[in-house]
Design a protein that fits this description.
- Helix content is 45%, strand content 13%.
- The chain is of the alpha/beta class and 222 residues long.
- A six-stranded parallel β-sheet has the order 3-2-1-4-5-6.
- Helix 9 links the parallel strand 5 and strand 6.
Length: 222
């Protein structure tokens, strides 16, 4: 029985890929850097400070981040369609919902509050960059979550992780955590299939999760 759903944030709950390049390019231009899509997307998925080191060599992350926050006031991110309804449904079913993201804590909370997701998330199960020394695809990124759940008598076989990147899958696989993929990010269904994700665990978006979880539960008890 699934008692806990842990989700990634960017491109799993909120739309990032459509705006991320434009925002990074705008910040880069402000500081005198030119950014092309090939360079950006070849580095996308790295820890954020590492991404900035590669695409804007010499630019302090603090300076980049300060100007990005300024831009977001006028161009906020939007949720993936159906995300709020999914989170609400999960909570109504008694499922605990948490987050594991490579985003920084203040950035995550600012955006999650703006789209109304915080209402449905367990604040004790939100882990962001800096909350653990490990980052996806390292499976040890799950250790704080697994420790927290174990203290509540919940085993990892009772949780799933939902993410949009192969690094999400690799981390979950290494940690021994059930994984469901969404294709609202940069990875396609074929990318996940080639990596070894079962077709039944690949969703077009987070909106499909309630039905897929119901089917998953029936299969476990079938």
């Amino acid at each position: 029985m699934i008692r806990v759903v842990i989700v990634d944030f960017d491109d799993t709950l909120i739309r990032t890929k459509e705006m991320s390049f434009e925002k990074h390019a705008a910040v880069g231009e402000y500081f005198g850097y030119a950014l092309d899509e090939a360079t950006f997307f070849s580095n996308y998925g790295r820890p954020w400070p590492t991404l900035i080191e590669h695409i804007f060599p010499g630019l302090a992350f603090s300076d980049f981040y300060e100007y990005l926050v300024y831009l977001e006031r006028d161009y906020p991110f939007q949720e993936i369609e159906g995300a709020t309804n999914t989170l609400q449904h999960l909570r109504e079913q008694g499922i605990i919902v948490g987050v594991l993201t490579s985003d920084f804590r203040d950035s995550f909370f600012r955006r999650a509050q703006r789209v109304g997701h915080m209402t449905y998330l367990d604040s004790n199960l939100i882990f962001c960059a800096g909350d653990t020394p490990y980052t996806k695809p390292d499976g040890r990124a799950f250790l704080p979550i697994l420790d927290r759940l174990q203290s509540q008598g919940i085993g990892k076989e009772e949780m799933i992780f939902v993410g949009d990147l192969l690094t999400d899958y690799q981390a979950a696989k290494e940690a021994g955590v059930h994984f469901f993929a969404v294709t609202t990010g940069f990875q396609t269904a074929n990318d996940f299939l080639r990596a070894g994700v079962s077709h039944s665990h690949i969703l077009s978006s987070i909106a499909e999760l309630p039905l897929r979880l119901a089917m998953y539960g029936e299969a476990q008890h079938g």
